[in-house]
Amino acid sequence: MDKNIEIIETINKISEEAKKSLDSAKESSELDGIFKAFMGKKGRLTEILHNIGSYSIEEKKIIGKKSNEVKNEIEAVYNAKKTELSAGENKKFSAEYKIDLTIPGKHIERFHKHPITAVLEEAADFFTSMGFTIVEGPEIETAYYNFDALNIPADHPARDVWDTFYLLNGLVPRTHTSSVQARILEKKELPLRIIAPGRCYRYEAVDATHLFMFNQMEGLFVDKNVKLSDLKGILEETVKHLLGARKTRFRPAFYPFVEPGLDLDIECVFCGGRGCGVCKNTGWIEVIPCGMVHPNVFKYAGIDTEEYKGFAFGMGFDRIVMLKYNINDLRLLYQGSLDILNQF
Ligand SMILES: [Zn+2]
């Protein structure tokens, strides 16, 4: 018997042993282990084939052909056994964990943002696309930032308009987000474009259109050449973006921190301009109080009023949501009722 035949016999022997072992495996993991022990990088068959350097080329051809046949046979046994064991194991797993893949899935409730949050984010996206940045300020404010710095000194009758609560320490839950405007201007990082969304508080008797707490979004645009026409253009686009194409009008209004002061009205969404209870028979609803920043506000912040001009606005956000969705009672938005919220 020459050594050629000898190694072929060894290969045959290993092959028979491998197939027998594989066929007797009880679990997939055991099967994989056996396969690796024969066919892996350091498996028995692989090791044998690494040591054929001393054979002639002719002999190596015969050994190579034989080893390929054997490898294919072992792989075939392995694959067949793998399929058999996996099927059994899956069945056992399903039975053990009581999984029935034919049962329809459970209905999962889908949640969504509160309409006020959703519209606020929509507006914030719109303003940031025009170069505005979002800033925040404290809800509990000093009277200075809430009133004085906005041209509403303590003895000014306009202070009565912002009926509010005072805390015992003299601080005030802010009556508008305009207080953020006063804080930002003080930093004198000009030019600037900001919006400041947030909660505000007033001493109000609660009814369909008034709450003691509400959401506002302040806007401020300051630059060297800002004009009233910029204010009109930007706010008209804002209304169009949030409420769709509607008739708008600007009319003069008095706010101590702007000069001139304006109100942006839209045609009443409830009556289409014919006049109804909601619009007090005027056909118009006030949406955005606004105006050119009063020189006194700039002076309080130490900004040169010859060099810089600006405009500001304060959107009552709850009202925007009311108009957007035709809700005639503001209180509905704050009841946390799923019957109502699921409609959005
Ligand atoms: Zn109306």
Which characteristics define this entry?
BirA Bifunctional Protein, domain 2, 9 strands, binds zinc ion, two-stranded antiparallel ribbon, 344 residues, 11 helices, 2 domains, 7-stranded mixed sheet, alpha+beta, single chain
Characterization of this structure:
The protein has helices at 3-23, 28-39, 44-50, 57-96, 115-129, 143-146, 178-186, 228-243, 295-301, 317-325, 338-341; strands at residues 133-134, 140-141, 172-173, 192-201, 213-223, 248-252, 258-267, 284-293, 309-316. By secondary structure, it is of the alpha+beta class. It has two domains: 3-96; 115-341, Bira Bifunctional Protein, Domain 2 (BirA Bifunctional Protein, domain 2, 2-Layer Sandwich). The termini are far apart. The model has no long low-confidence stretch (mean pLDDT 89). Zinc ion is lined by residues 268, 270-271, 275-276, 278-279, 283.
What is the second-level CATH architecture of the largest domain? 2-Layer Sandwich
Structural class: alpha+beta
Instruction: State the major sheet.
Output: 7 strands, mixed
Q: So what's the overall shape?
A: elongated
**What is the CATH homologous superfamily assignment of the largest domain?**
Bira Bifunctional Protein, Domain 2
> Mean pLDDT, as a whole number?
89
- The CATH topology of the largest domain comes to BirA Bifunctional Protein, domain 2
Give the domain tally: 2
Strands, count: 9
- Spatial sequence of strands, sheet with the most strands: 1-4-5-9-8-7-6
